[in-house]
């Protein structure tokens, strides 16, 4: 099985990406292809020189995603996406710009027939939430499509036999919410296997559902709001500790306990998330991924391929 | 100055409400009116019997808000709202059902002329976020109206001289977001004093804006998502401590540090939030308010009246 690694994407590229890829070669038996600056990559130990694909351009977080994909045809991301499309590799992992990856996924590798829009999920404490930012204005039908793609993925890759699907809403009862969620509710009742009704944002961590479907605007607000709280609490701990009210050894204990308590919130542990709706297996790893996150992403990618996740998704649209 | 206290609303009613009201009488020099069961209230020490207004019905969280207001005319909430409308009291505080209070505020006390919808804000770490649940489907014009009401309140009550107003969005740049936020952005540019552009959900705690405007659906998702994280972290701490990995005295220190670190997140400290857009001063206190939260709400209510917040808001619509 051949995996393309975008060695230009992410805050800790190329080192963390390469290290994670090498770990995946060793433990998963996959064959890694390294997309990035040949000059840098060839100096890194254990990187097979014949599997370096030289990229002389680079896509940054700042540029317009669609533009970047169109113009930077010699970037690691575009080169890898083309090899993915052409079957030279079986799957791809990138910690680069989410927008560019989505645009590239849509334009270069293409969508599953019948899928109108690709969606961006996250996996948090065992629950898949989508869309978290790819589609700002959605229809109830798009939400249904997101639910179906997520369901196929959860069955194939996360091995949840009968995923419980919920709609993100402001209250649990039917009839709650805005026009869109009310319309989606009846559509889901008719057409979504495993639909269990509405989920509130505070249920995201309680594993009350395996899949929570929302539009990309709400999903992004939810995700970033949670990040905001986590950051606030972390800063709070830092200032409590910096205040000198606690002896250094006690402070260390507090930090360790806080890390443990907040561990489940760290979505870097979950090995990234697939871009759903594309014809080819493509995992978006978190921008700050370290080697262990890239390795986890590789495990997910292997499962996605082994268990025919894409074929199962295609089946949903036939 | 006469304040109506809904002694039926909230998890800790009537004791916590009465205690907070008595504290306000003592420290703020206001005159409290106690709406609730006369039988219970007259047994409580220091409650002036001549200022008890007997309520023989009660509105619960479970019933339909509009229905409850219409049918339960002898509930504490409805009796107080009517006295507020008729000028028998100058302001009102309730920790009861938000939906019923909104419906009652709209139907009984009435809206400021020109205000299409009342809005429900929260004050979090110094920033007012609104709407957090009163209006599910909004227009850009409604969002502008929310911004204006919040601005008047922040000037009059929070004494922020030039409030910075932002739109809740998925990115800071202009052009981000869904149809609604894009349209609202240009409307705010034209008509909103102090508009500073978009704010991301993760900026909520960073005091980057004094007012963050959103529709009630997104605002509610944001708020409950944050509550979900806080609950998750709290449960995380509990299970870390219950694991026995830490000696009891160390565990106590950890709990104290966590409480300190998360203190700013506790919106009960902020003394509730006004229902904006109504003709009369009405503060919604958190459902789990204790005496100190009711006292804080009384401080806000007094400022709202002293500083003519309603008149300033009315001025925005002339």
From TrEMBL, chains A, B:
Its main location: cytoplasm. GO terms for biological process: fatty acid biosynthetic process; phospholipid biosynthetic process. Transmembrane segments: none annotated. Its EC number is 2.3.1.274. It is found in: Cytoplasm. It catalyses: a fatty acyl-[ACP] + phosphate = an acyl phosphate + holo-[ACP]. It comes from the Bacteria. Pathway: Lipid metabolism; phospholipid metabolism. One of its GO terms (cellular component) is cytoplasm. The keyword Lipid biosynthesis applies. Gene3D superfamilies: Isopropylmalate Dehydrogenase. One of its GO terms (molecular function) is phosphate:acyl-[acyl carrier protein] acyltransferase activity. Belongs to the PlsX family. Catalyzes the reversible formation of acyl-phosphate (acyl-PO(4)) from acyl-[acyl-carrier-protein] (acyl-ACP). This enzyme utilizes acyl-ACP as fatty acyl donor, but not acyl-CoA. Homodimer. Probably interacts with PlsY. This is Phosphate acyltransferase. The lineage of its organism: Bacteria, Bacillati, Bacillota, Tissierellia, Tissierellales.
